[in-house]
Amino acid sequence: MKNTGLFVFLFSLCLCTTSCVDDEADFSGGGNIDVEMPAEPDPDATIDEKVFDVINLDYPGLEKVKTAFEAGDKYTALVKLLDYYRTRVDVVNRNVNLFNPTITEADQKIADYALDYKFYVKGFADKDGTPYSFKGKDGQLINWELEVEGVTDQEFRYQRHRHQWMLPQAKAYAVSKDERYIESWKTVYQDWLKTYPYEDGTKFPPEGGSENDKDYQWKGLQVAERVISQIDIMAYFIQSKNFTPEWLSTFLAAFAKHVECMRINYYQSGNILLTQAQAVTMAGILMPEFKNAEIWTNEGAAKLTEQVGTQFLNDGVQIELDPSYHISAINDAYDTYLTAEDNNKSELFPAAYLAQLEKPAKFVMDITYPNYSWDNFNDTRSASYSESVLKRNFRNYATMFPGNTDFQFMANGSGTPPNYLIASYPDAGYYILRSGWSEEDAMMVLKNNNDPNNSWHCQSDNGTFGLYYNGRNFFPDAGVYAYSGSDRTKYEQTTWHNTLSIQNKGIAKGFRNGVLKQLKEDNGIQTLITENQTQYLAGENPNIPLTHRRTVFHDIAKKIFVIIDEAKGDESYNYNTNMNFHPCPGAIVEPANDKKTATAYTTFENANMKIRTFSDPNNTSASYSESKKVNTNVSNNIGNAEARTSYQITMKPGNGKIVRFISVICLKDGEISDTTIDAKFENDAPTDLPNSTSVIVTVGGEEKTYTYNL
C-alpha cells in the first residue's frame, strides 16, 4: 500500500549535552515523503511481541493499531503503528530537521567509516586518524570487546557502547536516502542487542551505579546517551523502506527496556544522574505512546528539577568542579526544558527552574578567555570548546536571561562588556582576575579547590592557574590524557601543576580545603589571597600537614602578576618542598646555577611572557637541592599530548621556618627575554604565617612594593 507521511519536527539550535559539537543548522521543519509500505511480512524477520506490552494501544491515533491487535493480526497492527509514527504531527523534536536535513563533513566521514565497521569512539582514533575497526574474525560479525595495543583507558570501553556513529549515519541517510546507512545501523544494533542482552528488572550493584565491572554496557551514560540519540535516529530513518514493521517492534521493545533499566539504576549523584534524568524525561515527552511515558515524564522532570537544585553549589559551580561537566549540566537541564515547552509541558518544571541556571551560566562566562577558549582544568578537554561552541552556549544563555546584557555581549562579541574585572566562586574555589574583556587583555583563572569530598573529576592542584594574554594561554593546565591508568595519574599529579608540592608528591584525599582570604581591587592593583590547609602524601609514612597560602597581585597598568607562596608546617617541618611552574609549549626555561631561582620566557612574534621565581634569601636556615628543567605535557583532548618544558625549585626551609617563594610574571607585546626581573621579601623569614607580607619587585629597573594585610 502507498503512504504519504508528514513527520513534523521543529529544529532549533542543538544544545551541547555530554559532548559538544560544532554543528549548527537553520530553523526548519519536516516534509512529505512517499514510502512503499510492505504488504506481507518479511519471512526472514521476526516480530518482538513485547512491543505490545510496552505500547499504550489506547493512545490517541493508535485506534487502527488496537483494532488489528485485538483481531489477532499482530503484523497488521505493526504496519499501522509504523504508519502512525511516519505521520504523527503532535510531537515536536527540536533536534531533528527533516525539511532541509544537513550533515557536517565530520559526521559524513563518521557515517561512511561505520559502513565498514570502523566505529567512531569519541577521543580515540587509529594512528592515521580514522576510527578503529571493530570488524570481527572467525565468523564473528563485530568484535565489541576490541582491545588496541597501547590503549588502556577505560573510556575506550565505555564510549563504544554509546553508539556515537549511529546518529551521523541517520543524518547521512536523511540527506542522501542511501539505504546502506540504515542497513548498516540495523545490522550493527541488532548484533549489539544479541551480544549484550538485558533482562528486564536487572539491578546492578552497588546501588547508585559503578561502571568498572562487566555490566558497564547497561550503566550510566552508556544507556542515557543511547536513549537520547535513538529518539533522533528513529526520526531520521523512519521513512526508509528498510524500517520495516518487524524492525519497529525490535527497536521499540529495546527502547522501553533502555528507559526502564535507567530508572532502576539511577546514579546517586553527579553529572551522570542529571543526564539520566534528562534521558528519561525526553523519552516520556517525545515517545508518549509508551504505557509508562507519563511516569517517565513526571519522574524524570522531578528528578531533573531536584538535581538542578542540588548539583550546583551556592556560587553556581557544578559540584564536581569540572567546567566541561558544568556546561553539560546546564545544557541538559535547558534542553529538556525547551523540549517540554515545545510540547506544551513546561508545567513539568517550577517557575524557579530556569532562574537557578543563571549563576551557573555566569560561571561559564567568567572562566572563558577573551578569545573564546577554555583551559584544561580537571577533566575538561579544551579542544572541545571552540569559539563557535562557546558562543552558541552564550546565545542560549542570552535567550534564557534576556535581561542579562553580559550574556548578550558574550554571545555577539560586541556591545557593552561586563562592568567588573574580578570574579569569585569561593564555594568551588575558582577566582578570576582580568584587565578587561577584549582579546588584548590579560586574564588569570586561579583554582584553589574547595573539594573535601575528593570529586573524581577534580585534580589535586590547589593554587594552580591559567594565564591568558593577547590571544595566548601562557600557562595552560596539563589537562586529562586518559580517564584511567598511569597516564591519568601522570597528568593529574600535583607536580604537573603551577603550585607547591612536597617531595614531588601530591595532596592527600580529603584535603582539598581551599578557602578565600581576600579578593579586592585598589588603585589598579587586584589582590587575591587563597589558602589551603592540607596534607601531602608521604608514601608509607603519615601524611605531611602543610598550610599553603598563595597571594596574587595583578598590576593592571604594568602588565605584571606577582605571586607570593607562603607555607607553614608543624614545628619539625623540614621536607624537600617543590615550587612548580609550567609555561606553554615553546617556552625557554633557564634554571639558575645557584639552585635558588629559575626563569622562563617565550619568543613568539606578538605577545610574550617572562616569569622568574625567587626563593627566600632572608631564610639563612634554608638549603637548596636543585633548580631544574622538567619535561611535562599539555593534553587538550583524550589521547592527545604536546610536550613542554617546565621548571622546579626544591628547598628545605629549616626547622620551624616557613616556606616562601616570589614569582613575577611580566607580559609584553614584543620581545621580552632581555627584560630584567628581580624580587625580594622586605621582612625576614617568620616562623608562622604572617598577617602582612611585603615584597619589593623590580622590572626593567623600575621598583615597586606590593603588600597585603589580613
Description:
The chain is of the alpha+beta class. The chain contains 16 helices and 22 strands. The protein has helices spanning 51-54, 63-70, 74-87, 105-114, 154-159, 166-176, 179-195, 220-237, 245-263, 271-286, 293-310, 323-342, 358-366, 387-400, 405-412, 485-492, and strands at 2-6, 32-36, 422-425, 430-434, 442-447, 464-469, 472-473, 500-502, 514-522, 525-536, 544-555, 560-568, 577-581, 588-591, 597-601, 607-615, 623-637, 640-652, 659-669, 677-681, 692-699, 702-709. It has an eight-stranded antiparallel β-sheet with strand order 9-10-11-12-19-16-15-14, with no helix packed on it. A five-stranded antiparallel β-sheet has the order 3-4-5-6-7, with no helix packed on it. Strand 10 and strand 11 form a beta hairpin. Helix 6 (166-176) packs antiparallel against helix 7 and helix 8 packs antiparallel against helix 9 (245-263). The longest helix has 20 residues, at 323-342. The N and C termini lie far apart (83 Å).
